[in-house]
Amino acid sequence: MKGLIIIQYLGGKSRISNKISEVINNEVSRWKEQNINTNISDNRERERESNTFVSLFCGTCSVESKVKGFDKVICNDNHEYLIEMLKGVQNGYNLPEEISEEQYKYIRDHKDENKILSGFVGFGCSFGGKWFGGYARNKTGTNYALQSKKSLHKDIDNMSNAEFICMDYRDVYIPKGSVVYADPPYNNTTGYGKQKFDSEEFWEYMREISKYNKVFISEQTAPSDFECVWEKEFTRTLDVNKDNQFKVVEKLFTHKGK
Ligand SMILES: C[S@@+](CC[C@H](N)C(=O)[O-])C[C@H]1O[C@@H](n2cnc3c(N)ncnc32)[C@H](O)[C@@H]1O
Predict the structure, then answer these.
(1) Residue 45 has pLDDT above 60, yes or no
(2) Does pLDDT of 228 surpass 80?
(3) Taking the model in full, what pTM does it have?
(4) Which residue has the higher pLDDT, 14 or 213?
(5) Mean predicted lDDT score pLDDT of the chain
(6) Strands 245-255 and 214-219
(7) Which residues line ligand 1 (CB under 6 A)?
(8) Pocket test for ligand 1, best of 56, 74, 77 (most atoms within 8 A of CB)
């Protein structure tokens, strides 16, 4: 895609964030019109209906920055440095426009000296956006720091009222009647931390919160009680020189309900 500026982020949705947010925005309008939240049954429960958008695995907020019409936006991710970076940018931290390999290595080895900067360099200046996965460089001399800075500002500058929080997705408080977006790590991968992601537990939790909220899940496959509301094939790149490309079908699921 010519002219598209994206921050490097493993599993990031930058390239398709417009599409995903469009689907969420359309579905939400329809959902609100039809008032199909039948689980909120009596008046007392209805009072608790919220106009909140909650993202449980926000990453660099490529989708979250494009959803519309919510009074409150809550973005969660359990990566401490990532959330520090997002909060820093929101509060006006001046990110660097250039990072040398030497600086990259220093920051990697002293992560806690400046968590905002570590979050930025650890993802935005690394191969394939993998957390300190090696200093990003390519044959055309792309300035990854500058590209990532521009991309982050493009998204986060639209999110001045968002609340960024850092916890496990199951601990996030979700006001009843929220619209929830979940873009979890791929099934059984260790791409983001030491612990494997338990997909079974994840889908069970999605069932639970779907009783009271409109939940959208980005995944390639889902259990049979979830339906696909959108899908698109696109190319994923795992390394910065684009040698390691493969096709995946991105899908968006919701729970079928009763
Ligand atoms: C596929 S990525 C999300 C990418 C994001 N949509 C974007 O476009 O940048 C999955 C995210 O889940 C986070 N994560 C992994 N396990 C988590 C957990 N148990 N609770 C909350 N976040 C978690 C990772 O840090 C990672 O940022």
Answers:
(1) no
(2) yes
(3) 0.88
(4) 213
(5) 87
(6) antiparallel
(7) 9, 11-13, 57, 59-60, 62-63, 77-79, 168-169, 183-185, 192, 197
(8) 77
